[in-house]
Amino acid sequence: MKKIAIFASGNGSNAENIIRYFRDNPNAAEVVLVVCNKPDAAVVKRAENLGVPVKIISKADFQNQDIVLELLKEAKIDIIILAGFLLMVPQYLTEHYKDRIINIHPSLLPAYGGKGMYGRHVHEAVVAAGETETGITIHLVTDKCDEGAILFQVKTGISPEDTPQSVEAKIHRLEKEHFPRLIELFIHDLGQDTMH
């Protein structure tokens, strides 16, 4: 049974979806920790309501590998999932958890990735550019923003009537449908690798 830590900064709808998914499918993994950099983020309440411990780590403390690695070690974390986490993941973490940190991005990377491209900013840019499709990208995290190996992408169409808000709703549906399942598949593959 793999132990998951979710890193989140905001509303926490993806975090809640993942926690519930693995609670209902307990054979693969369990979310045992939520790490958040904003004490007032909605994800904190969501996680607490679901009985998952939350650790608030300031931006400064996040740069301190002794604090963060010790926390993850204590919780015996195997995999880190970024679900709307807005801090850059420091190199010590991408090295220590190489190929075991997964992020979801609300566009078809490499398009609309990189610094400042998150959440509503992405949907506004996609609509402003007159794109006819967008989607989600689930990828491994490296020390380069949004540049890790792509594990999965799925597309959705954009009509001329779409607004950033309606695109966001489409993206949320895709995230809810695909993100937890992809994590489960990834964990399953990880298990196969360790057996060889």
Describe the overall structure:
The longest helix is centred in the last third of the chain and has 32 residues, at 164-195. This protein starts with a strand and ends with a helix. It is built from seven helices and seven strands, in the order βαβαβααβαβαββα. The protein is globular. It has one domain (2-195): Formyl transferase, N-terminal domain (Rossmann fold). The chain has 196 residues and is α/β, with parallel strands linked by helices. The mean pLDDT is 93. The protein has a seven-stranded mixed beta sheet, covered by helices on one side. Helix 1 crosses helix 7. Strand 4 (79-82), helix 5 and strand 5 form a beta-alpha-beta unit.
Can you lay out the helices and strands and say which pair or pack?
Layout: E1 2-8, H1 13-24, E2 29-36, H2 42-49, E3 54-56, H3 59-62, H4 65-74, E4 79-82, H5 91-96, E5 101-105, H6 120-128, E6 133-140, E7 150-157, H7 164-195
Parallel strand pairs: 1-2, 1-4, 2-3, 4-5
Antiparallel strand pairs: 5-6, 6-7
Helix pairs in contact: 1-7, 6-7
Can I get a quick summary?
The protein has 196 residues and is an alpha/beta fold.
